[in-house]
Amino acid sequence: MVLMYLVICSVVLLPSSSSDFCYDEGYCDPYAWGDYFPSCHPIIEGHHSPINLDHQVRRNLSLDMLHLEGFDSTQRGRWRLKNDGHSIMLEVDSGMTVSGGGLPGTYETVQLHFHWGSSSTNGSEHTIGQLRFPMEMHIVNMKSIHPNLTAALDDPTGLAVLGFFIDVAYADNVNFRPISDAVPSVAYKGQTASIRPFPLISLLPQNNLSQYYRYHGSLTTPPCSQVVLWTVYEAPIYISWAQLKQFVNGVYSTEEGAEKQAHLHNNFRHIHPTFSRTVYASKDARVLTDATCPPLSGAAFTLLIALTVTGLSSAL
């Protein structure tokens, strides 16, 4: 509980909109995406993502831990890591599915990708109590009745995305190295790298997978289709500063050899209102269903940092 207290109550409040993220062909302002992609226009009663998660959540006792089939096994063949110009994406082969936890069917895992900030800003898409984490990982899953993603975008619940906040610790996360070590090979837009599959469960906060929040939303990049059932987990994944810097300092939104090189920074969409949507807390969720965190004195804050670092060093 000390660790979770520090994460939720002491993360620095940062701006909720990106400033230098371009989504292809110079569309650099997510607020203006609707001018080019009509489905990205956030009209009233729209179900857009990301959102701020706050204490206005409703407990749903039927939301148990999701069933992550195949996440604990190592697939054959190779996976492909790719820089698509607006994220680093890991495309996986078939064999992993997500179901249960209130999802209306079985969803096949397709890919995972990342959102991050810069050397001076945090970059998670979702926020908790207006607080933003350094990174966020999305595991994208497509309803198994659909032949491809294009078909899934015509289904109001065609996609189920698992969102994980990423925070920073002192030591490398060895389970994250297959990705972070390969990032230099895909530094520039259009580059790809082949990596050996690994158990995807090793990336996740396995002791806290029953603690999450659920709402109906959208893709966070064009075409912003409102077809996503979001599962956003409370417990973050921890990586080192060095692993974070692989993304912040080493990834470009431009092709290698381009006349003007541009780092890929702040590739997150701005926060959207929930309007009439209900955000549900799983049966075991704790952070947003407890009382609001009281303010900390300087001495208490220092003590919590010391306790947290001790806990992290034994957990990594």
TrEMBL record:
Gene Ontology terms, MF aspect: carbonate dehydratase activity; zinc ion binding
Catalytic activity: hydrogencarbonate + H(+) = CO2 + H2O
InterPro entries (UniProt xref): CA4/CA15, CA_dom, CA_dom_sf, Carbonic_anhydrase_a-class, Carbonic_anhydrase_a-class_CS
Keywords: Glycoprotein, Lyase, Metal-binding, Signal, Zinc
Cofactor or coenzyme needed: Zn(2+)
Signal peptide: 1-19
Alpha-carbonic anhydrase domain span: 19-283
GO CC annotations on file: plasma membrane
UniProt-listed PROSITE patterns: ALPHA_CA_1, ALPHA_CA_2
EC numbers, comma separated: 4.2.1.1
Function of the protein: Reversible hydration of carbon dioxide.
UniProt family annotation: Belongs to the alpha-carbonic anhydrase family.
PANTHER family xref list: CARBONIC ANHYDRASE, CARBONIC ANHYDRASE 15
Identification of the protein by name: Carbonic anhydrase
